[in-house]
Specification:
single chain; alpha+beta; 4 helices; 5 strands; GNAT family N-acetyltransferase; Acyl_CoA_acyltransferase; acyltransferase activity, transferring groups other than amino-acyl groups; GNAT_dom
């Protein structure tokens, strides 16, 4: 019998997380398995972020990463920084289970809601969020500046 469970991430999940990230965005290949392991350690030990994984048997097949989000003009929110389910397991309710678990954690922890960004081309993801009462608020452009050594 297969065992499915949602739990908090562990450092030993790094290989499965690395593979999920690669499948979601092949451009992330430059971020090595070892760096994923290091990031899991940093996030779990040095931040207030929460990462839930969905494990089937011994494989992590999905995760959602929530981060407390504080603004000077809004109540406290949880910002979704990462959310992926292995492609062959999509449309089986796993994403719903993960987001429900993050919502419960956020509500139980005193946050007022959840905020997330989704690429304009991810139409199926948009429908997923809208079915769960997430409201589209605005289009925006994201900018980044990398610091050189």
């Amino acid at each position: 019998m297969k065992e499915n469970k949602v739990r908090e991430i562990r450092e030993t999940d790094y290989h499965d997380i690395y593979l999920l990230n690669q499948a979601f965005n092949p451009n992330l290949h430059v971020f090595s398995e070892e760096r994923v392991r290091e990031k899991i350690e940093i996030i779990t030990k040095k931040t207030k972020d929460i990462i839930f994984v969905y494990e089937q048997d011994t494989e992590v097949i999905g995760y959602i990463h929530g981060s407390p989000y504080e603004l000077l003009f809004s109540d406290s929110l949880v910002n979704v920084l990462g959310f992926v389910v292995k492609e062959s397991y999509r449309n089986q309710g796993i994403g719903g289970i993960l987001i429900d678990r993050l919502e419960k954690w956020g509500k139980d922890s005193g946050y007022s809601g959840i905020k997330l960004l989704s690429h304009p081309g991810r139409i199926h993801a948009h429908r997923f969020y809208e079915r769960r009462s997430y409201m589209f608020t605005k289009d925006q452009k994201n900018y980044i500046k990398r610091f050189e050594d």
